[in-house]
Amino acid sequence: MKFLVLNGPNLNLLGLREPEIYGKQDYRALEDFVRQAASEAGVLVDLFQSNYEGGLVEAIQQAYGVYDGIVINPAAYTHTSVAILDALKAVRIPTVEVHLSDVSSREPFRQISYVSYAAVKTIAGKGFEGYREAVFFLKDLLTKEGGRHV
Ligand code: DQA
């Protein structure tokens, strides 16, 4: 079972960026955390971060036929991107949406998630731990469904 973990704009600045909201650990630490979680879950994982909407759209398109599941933190594009939503709907790969912060208790513009229309689950406010939960959730879902979705 192989998952693609996508992170959107400014997540490469973790540690520097609003540490009171996103924590003090950097993006490299997040990558290490996700790889460790994947190894515990017994799944393969690739990670990709982009500050560009089109970069994320292309990564989703290229995931078709390659990955069984997607974990995505679209960052600011969560609240704006119909293009990312449409890409996820096109490839129909089971997707879990993750946010480090509890977006539901932040500014009103963060209450809207386009990506959630294509996600089987949204996990927010659990920091790095949310990615682990997403990996295990997808693994359990796909195991129940009997393996490959695409
Ligand atoms: C975020 C929440 C978004 O509103 C914000 O734009 C981000 C990060 C989170 O992980 O909490 O960049 O997705």
Polypeptide structure, described:
The mean pLDDT is 96. With 150 residues, this protein is α/β, with parallel strands linked by helices. Helix content is 38%, strand content 17%. It has one domain (2-144): Dehydroquinase, class II (Rossmann fold, 3-Layer(aba) Sandwich), CATH 3.40.50. It has a 5-stranded parallel sheet, sandwiched between helices. Helix 2 (27-41) runs parallel beside helix 5 and helix 3 (53-63) packs parallel to helix 4 (82-91). The radius of gyration is 14 Å and the shape is globular. It has helices at 19-22, 27-41, 53-63, 82-91, 129-145; strands at residues 2-7, 44-49, 69-73, 95-99, 121-124. Bound molecules: 1,3,4-trihydroxy-5-OXO-cyclohexanecarboxylic acid. 1,3,4-trihydroxy-5-OXO-cyclohexanecarboxylic acid binds at residues 10, 73, 75-76, 78, 99-101, 103, 110.
Describe the structure in brief.
This protein has 150 residues and is an alpha/beta fold. Helices cover 38% and strands 17% of the residues.
The CATH homologous superfamily corresponds to Dehydroquinase, class II
Based on Cα principal axes, name the global outline: globular
Order of helices and strands: EHHEHEHEEH
Distance between the termini: 12 Å
Can you tell me the CATH class?
Answer: Alpha Beta
Keyphrases for this structure?
single chain; 150 residues; alpha/beta; Rossmann fold; 17% strand; globular; binds 1,3,4-trihydroxy-5-OXO-cyclohexanecarboxylic acid
